[in-house]
Amino acid sequence: MATLKNFITTFMIAVSNCSLYTKEHEAFDELAKNAFSALNELLGESFEIMIIENDLVINKMPLRDAGIHNINLIKRLKRKGVTRIDLFRGVTLSELKQLIIDISAPGKGLTSCPHIKTGIVDVSISTPWMDSDSLTFSPSDNIEKLQKVFHAISTSRQLPITELEEIVFHFIATFRREANILKVLSPVRTFSEYTYTHATNVAVLSMFQAESLGIKDELLHDIGLSALLHDTGKMFVPKEILEKAGSLDDKEFAEMKKHPLHGARYLAKMHDIPKLAPVIAFEHHLKYDGSGYPGLCVDRKKQHICSQIVAVSDFFDALRSHRPYRESIDAKTILVMMKKSAGIDFNPFLVDNFIRILQPVISEPA
Length: 366
Prior knowledge:
The chain has 366 residues and is α+β, with helices and mostly antiparallel strands. It has two domains: 2-134, no CATH class; 139-358, Hypothetical protein af1432, CATH 1.10.3210.10. Helix content is 52%, strand content 6%. The protein has a five-stranded antiparallel β-sheet with strand order 3-2-1-4-5, with helices on one face. Strand 1 (46-52) and strand 2 (55-58) form a beta hairpin.
């Protein structure tokens, strides 16, 4: 166990310090050699690193000690969309150096090497090794997780970041596997569940848009997590307004319109979430032309591009969802409405892109 912990420690020290040095620098070379030496003490035919739920499992041995190096490794790998790394006999120092560089670099995937294999573990299937194409997905599980997150916010003001990271990871793996994005979206099963279902759908649609624009890795993850939290401010709106079965009156709507401000204020105090999160929470009801709400002391002509992405997703999912006071609207009609509002409510480029990526699937059943 001590040898195992030594490897994780030396490996993560190399990862953490990688950005400080070039790969040719003697300091980086020394850190990588330390990690390589620790690995060779453990390496038989192969050496496996897995993340199962929120635990690090090395060579099928769970490491229950949630030390800082274990936590950082889990977080970095999940942000790369990876939950398993296998290192095989014959792995070279240069291959390990490349793995360290890839893990440390934001916006960079993991390079394929002859003696290092990366992918995804699916614990719901008996086969111990799975790639991203075989990952299963349960929308209801993620909605339940998000409901617990929102409950924690409304009752204790705590933000369970680990559960959010897990949801985003599953979303990324799933929409890459499913060709029809509409099949990934969850239907609203009950009225009280709408807030959570809507948040998960907005996150999926926002990541789908972002990836189609070439956004990947850490920024893709940050957009997904921020989109999940875009309606966090609703947890500070009175429940009788939030769950009213009919249309809101003027006074109630004025109270509801405060939720972007509530959400931004709350998220701005959180240290473990992307800086995008409070920005998107504040701006997702602003419009491309500078109107919308809350519109308090903000240069609305400079709405963040990621907020614009979430606004497109927010509008689309809100209209396609059945509500007690109106029927759902079909996808084709919503896209026509969005096209008419391009340049006013929405960024015209994002609307055109959204239509482009949805057109191949809107004729299929969602």
